[in-house]
Write a structure and sequence with these properties.
46% of the residues lie in helices and 17% in strands. The chain is of the alpha/beta class and 212 residues long. The chain has a seven-stranded mixed beta sheet. A two-stranded antiparallel ribbon has the order 1-2. It is globular and about 60 Å long. The N and C termini lie far apart (44 Å).
């Protein structure tokens, strides 16, 4: 299944949901599903399901629905999670350690290969069988190891300088937990994760639902 043209951000954001539901269906022994049934599970219309999937060239046969296993396989390929990705984590605080310990990341091919910190109290600690390295070792490590993704779990005031350092080392894919929207060149792939944003949205919905 190949991308046939422009794919909207909204469709891209739904891909993990497709993968999650298809994985659950496969685990439950369901091998075939219609666009209507999949849409009901995901809170989407059958038309939206077909439109989303057609963004990547289409899949399945009219009247037969989709093979759960095959559609999951294609969704994995579209998202690039059908291969291994090697990650380093900058910052061995609560967020960095949580990312390193989260079991599903490894299961889905996102392998943490190193953690770095500048705090002497954290250097040498074991996080999920990985020894925290001194930040001074970062450049040499990257030059001698394949790194696909850098995870920023550091304060906002050090994030932009760290991004510049990553770019100088050839790393252009960043998962950023620092509370700042980083300025990046166009060829850099970055996802900014602001944990407080979700709570703010939750608070908004809770506040306005209570008044309806």
């Amino acid at each position: 299944m190949h991308v046939t043209g422009y794919v909207s951000e909204a469709v891209i954001k739904r891909l993990p949901g497709y993968y999650r539901h298809l994985r659950e269906l496969e685990s439950g022994g369901i091998f075939q599903i219609s666009s209507q049934e999949l849409g009901k599970r995901m809170g989407l219309t059958a038309s939206q399901i077909r439109q989303d999937i057609n963004s990547f060239g289409g899949f399945g046969r009219q009247g037969c629905g989709y093979s759960v296993q095959e559609l999951k396989k294609h969704i994995m390929s579209i998202m690039g999670i059908d291969k291994k990705h090697r990650m380093i984590i900058i910052g061995a605080g609560n967020i960095g350690c949580a990312v390193a310990r989260y079991p599903s990341f490894t299961r889905e091919g996102f392998q943490t290969i190193a953690i770095f910190d500048k705090d002497n109290a954290k250097i040498g600690l074991q996080v999920n069988e990985i020894t925290v390295k001194a930040l001074d070792e970062l450049d040499d490590f990257v030059r001698h190891n394949r790194v696909d993704i850098a995870v920023f779990a550091l304060p906002a005031n050090g994030a932009q300088a760290m991004l510049d350092q990553m770019l100088s080392l050839g790393i252009k894919t960043i998962w950023n937990f620092a509370p700042i929207d980083l300025k990046t060149p166009k060829d850099v792939v970055i996802v900014n994760v602001h944990l407080s944003d979700s709570l703010h949205i939750l608070s908004y919905k809770m506040t306005h639902t209570a008044h309806e």
